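A reminder before we start the practical. When you read a complex entry, don't treat the lines as separate problems. The point of joint prediction is that each chain is placed relative to the others, so the output describes one connected object in space. Small molecules and nucleic acid strands, if listed, are placed in the same frame. In the example below there are two entries. Take a minute to note the order of the lines before looking further.
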Amino acid sequence: EVQLVESGGGLVQPGRSLKLSCAASGFTFSDYYMAWVRQAPTKGLEWVASISYDGGSTYYRDSVKGRFTISRDNAKSSLYLQMDSLRSEDTATYYCTSEDGPYYFDYWGQGVMVTVSS
Amino acid sequence: AIVLNQSPSSIIASQGEKVTITCRASSSISSNYLHWYQQKPGAFPKLVIYSTSYRASGVPSRFSGSGSGTSYSFTISRVEAEDVATYYCQQGSSNPYTFGAGTKLELK
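Here is the predicted structure of the whole assembly.
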């Protein structure tokens, strides 16, 4: 059974940092691109970042470029999102997802809440 | 960025009714790159249809999709109570990947 389990969320002040982790199991992690998708409270879905199989290529939405860093450790079947210089508009539930085929998200974690507030 | 306009934003349907959601892209995309998700209240999203018309694993046959170019649709042939959810289209044709604003399906 595929499982993606996020951790590391919480309440953080604007301008501070937070690192999210995602532990994957039940599939060959290194065979998949991985991504983070977020959802602000009562809002829709928003792609944040993606990373290639070996971590050699990364992609970000403009609003997080230079502040967020996506990375992975295939030996640990883990995905990460380092979030620096956090803003109130980054407040959202962050989902870890696997990215397959023509760039769709097939497996999802339960999500982890990040609240940026003073 | 490619903008996806979903309509309607909400639907109230009776059990057994057919419902259709439309997703219009601001520029043409290959049908390979248009996908649909279901998000039930309080849950994470679930892939339902990928590449316009292919059902994801375990998805009932009452769910279907079609379209090309800039116009795509998602249909539930006979709505069931368990289909109450918000549905999103998503394009993987170009970076940044974008989602439609969602269509909330409720039962009458």
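Discuss with your neighbour: Chain B touches chain A at residues 30, 32-33, 35, 37, 39, 44-47, 50-51, 56, 88, 90, 92-93, 95-102 (CB under 8 Å). What might explain this?
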